[in-house]
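Propose amino acids for all 314 sites.
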């Protein structure tokens, strides 16, 4: 074993720091897309310009309405818990992924079926990171959803009130749906990213000078963007259900935002959404979500790769 390999294993925690850094930077730039997506996912009424009884009628309408009613900073509502969520998620996800990928690729089966290995490593990393960061996801979702009707004054107040009213289980409401989406989502993100990366590396001008394994920043952005869109398309209905489950027992804070959606569990949420809003209801907010997925995943992987390059570990 060479010294470089030993160094990588001894400093595997740096993958975690690079992941946390990429998560924080990406979140700071892309939070408005998340706010719009969550507002759409929680709206029962149709998202159409012709729908006079809908709070939000489209992406631009939602953007301008939030800015008008809540100020520009309303587009960064829930940003503090979202940053904790991103930092913890990125820290855990990338370290877990890199460690598992190295172990799987160290045997012949892993080398022969590297795409399966990437998917499994990514899925396991995504589930682990989701579970450990989930309470911050709950707080972030509720702070974004409450608008100017403030049931929670902030992150700490939200944690305290959830515990008083819902107990510990309140911090993990909707976690079953989250785990079902985070595994395939993270797995497919890494699978598609590594797949598109291997294809892009075959193009000379997309590689860094004197390197066979490192893409230039624009190549990283392209691969990340494509992987984000593909993985989001596969898993979107589960993400919508997760958000609606997280909002249960909190409907009182959504005064003025239209009809409230109530459900009693994962299957009931799917059924209620389908029956009340038809199959398209399961894809409510997909357009801004795809834009967000393309942008955030591109930045997520690009920041990660660039941080590792600075540390000479990629």
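Proposal:
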């Amino acid at each position: 074993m060479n010294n470089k390999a030993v160094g990588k294993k001894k400093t595997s925690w740096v993958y975690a720091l690079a992941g946390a850094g990429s998560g924080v930077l990406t979140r700071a730039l892309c939070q408005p897309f998340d706010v719009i997506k969550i507002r759409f996912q929680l709206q029962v009424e149709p998202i159409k310009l012709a729908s006079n009884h809908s709070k939000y009628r489209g992406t631009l309408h939602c953007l301008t309405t939030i800015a008008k009613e809540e100020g520009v900073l309303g587009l960064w509502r829930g940003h503090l818990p979202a940053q904790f969520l991103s930092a913890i998620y990125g820290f855990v996800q990338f370290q877990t992924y890199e460690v598992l990928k190295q172990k799987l690729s160290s045997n012949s089966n892993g080398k022969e079926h590297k795409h399966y290995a990437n998917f499994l490593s990514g899925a396991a990393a995504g589930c682990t990171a989701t579970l450990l960061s989930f309470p911050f996801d709950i707080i972030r979702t509720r702070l974004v959803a409450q608008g100017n009707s403030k049931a929670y004054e902030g992150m700490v107040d939200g944690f305290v009130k959830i515990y008083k009213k819902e107990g510990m289980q309140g911090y993990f409401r909707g976690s079953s749906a989250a785990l079902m989406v985070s595994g395939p989502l993270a797995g497919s993100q890494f699978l598609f990213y590594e797949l598109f990366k291997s294809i892009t590396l075959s193009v000379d001008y997309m590689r860094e000078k004197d390197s066979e394994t490192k893409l230039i920043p624009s190549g990283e952005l392209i691969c990340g963007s494509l992987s984000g869109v593909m993985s989001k398309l596969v898993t979107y209905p589960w993400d919508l259900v997760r958000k609606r489950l997280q909002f249960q027992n909190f409907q009182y804070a959504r005064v003025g935002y239209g009809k409230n959606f109530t459900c009693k569990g994962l299957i009931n949420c799917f059924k209620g959404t389908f029956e009340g809003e038809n199959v398209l209801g399961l894809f409510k907010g997909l357009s801004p979500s795809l834009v967000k997925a393309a942008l955030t995943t591109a930045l997520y992987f690009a920041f990660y790769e660039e941080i590792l390059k600075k540390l000479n570990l990629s």
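The CA atoms of residues 65 and 71 lie 9 Å apart. The mean pLDDT is 88.
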